[in-house]
Design brief:
alpha+beta, 27% strand, 3-stranded antiparallel beta sheet, single chain
């Protein structure tokens, strides 16, 4: 009697272990997929952060280069027309894939010369491109 009861119970449960195994597999796959998506998003954010810092440092360097040209050591203030682009070697090595632009305007207000400089640095390629802008207002 006991054996018959065990056999009947065993027949009723047939396939439930397989269903449970499939459910556990699907759940594990979903968790793994979520972790992969999280990791991919995190690494993309890190790339944007690094490219953003490179863009900012390049824009700042170009602005400082322009200030040295506008206000040479032991010299008088120059005009925006004297500004030249940085040396070609600036965009080699670690700066490959980067570029910078500088805009300069000058005005005379109440007898004082004012310079307004806007430097834009861009780094990256394709969808992973960042730009940073650094501005400065200088008076003599």
């Amino acid at each position: 009697m006991f054996l018959k009861h065990q056999l009947r119970r065993h027949r009723q449960q047939r396939g439930s272990a397989l269903l449970l195994a499939v459910f556990v597999l699907l759940l594990s796959a979903a968790v793994l997929w979520a972790l992969l998506q999280l990791t991919a998003g995190s690494s993309t954010g890190l790339v944007y952060e690094v490219q953003g810092q490179r863009s900012y440092q390049l824009a700042k360097a170009h602005l400082e280069y322009a200030l040295v040209q506008l206000y040479p050591l032991n010299g008088s203030a120059q005009q925006c027309s004297v500004l030249t682009a940085p040396a070609a070697g600036l965009y080699s090595g670690d700066w490959q894939g980067c570029s910078s632009q500088l805009q300069c305007s000058e005005a005379s207000i109440d007898g004082q010369r004012w310079f307004y400089l806007v430097s834009t640095g861009s780094c990256g390629s394709g969808d992973l491109t960042t730009s940073r802008i650094v501005e400065a207002e200088i008076t003599q």
